[in-house]
Amino acid sequence: MAALSASTVCMLCFAGVILDAIFGEPSRFHPLVGFGRWATCVARACNPDRQAAHASEAHVHAMPVVAHALLARLAGVAAWALAVVPPVALLAVLTHRLPTMLSWTLHVAALWFALGARSLIDHIAPVEQALRAGDLAKARALTARVVTRDLSDADEPAVARAAIESALENGNDAIFGALFWFAVAGGPGALAFRLVNTLDAMWGYRTPRFRYFGWAAARLDDAANFLPARLTALTYALCGNFRLAVACWRTQASAWDSPNAGPVMASGAGSLNVACGGAAWYHGVLEARPALGCGHGPGAADVGRALSLVKRSIVAWLAVMALLATASALV
C-alpha cells in the first residue's frame, strides 16, 4: 500500500490513543516480554563483558583497554541491530504489502503497543490518592514501583517530587515519543521507538557489564528522543506557565546528564510552578542532583497537576495533528 496520508495518520493516532486509554498495556502475553527475552539472549551471546559481574576487571580486560572498549562497542552496535531491525523490518513489510484494512490494523496495534499513557496514569494517580489520605508508607511503596531512588525514609515532598518527575519524564518516553515517530513512520516508527527505549533501559547502564556494550543503546535512544523531548518540553510550556517553563528549560536543562530528560523535566516543573530536582538517595548514596522548576515545594495536589499537564499535552498533540491533517486535505 502507499504511504499513509496525513489524515490517515491522524485517524490511526486517535485509534491508538483510544485503545490505550480503554485497555492500557496488555496484562498477559505482552510483546515486550518476548522482546526482552530476545534482547537478553542477544546480549548474552554478543556482550564480551557478560561475565563482568562475576569476574575481576583484570580478567575481563585482558586486552588493552582501548581495544577492548572498541570491540565491546562494536558488539553493542551489532547486538542492537540484531535485536531491533528484524521485528521493525517485518512490520514494515507487512504494513506495506497487506490490504489496506489489515495494514491499518497493524499500524494501530503497533502504536497501542508503543503507548503507555494509561499505564503511566494507573501508576502515578494512586500516589496522589495515598498522599491525600495521609498514608505515606503506601505512597512510598507505590512510587518505588516507578522510580529507582530509595524512598524508604522519604517525607511527603520527596515522594511527591519523585512521582512528579516520573510523570513528566515518562510523558515523553511512554507517550509523545511514540506519537512523534508514528507521525513520521507509522507503526514501524512507533515500534522502533519503543524497542530503542527498552534496550536503553536494559543495556544503557555505566556498569562494568554494560559500560561499553550498552553505549550504542544509550546513544541511539538519545538520538531517537532528541526531537520528541524538545517538542514535549514545548508542549508542557504551552499547557501551563509558559514563562516559567521556558526560563527553567533555558537555565536548568543543561545541568542534567541526560540531554533529553533535562528539557522535559525542567520545562514541566516550571510549567507547574513547583520545585523539583535536588538531592536524592540512590543505592545508599545521596546524589546532589540539579534543581528543576521553581516555586513551592511539591505535595499531593501537585502530583495530580502533573498528570493533568500530561493529559492536556496529549490533547494538544492530537489537536495539532488534526489541524495538520485538515490543512493537508485542503491543499
TrEMBL record:
Annotated compartments: Cell membrane
Keyword Membrane: yes
Annotated transmembrane regions: 70-94, 101-121, 174-196, 314-330
Pathway field: Cofactor biosynthesis; adenosylcobalamin biosynthesis
Keyword Iron-sulfur listed: no
Entry keyword set: Cell membrane, Cobalamin biosynthesis, Membrane, Transmembrane, Transmembrane helix
InterPro entries: Cobalamin_biosynth_CobD/CbiB
One Pfam family linked to the record: CobD_Cbib
Highest taxon of source: Bacteria
Major localization class: membrane
Protein's membrane topology: Multi-pass membrane protein
Entry's family note: Belongs to the CobD/CbiB family.
PANTHER family named in the record: COBALAMIN BIOSYNTHESIS PROTEIN CBIB
Function of the protein: Converts cobyric acid to cobinamide by the addition of aminopropanol on the F carboxylic group.
Name of protein: Cobalamin biosynthesis protein CobD
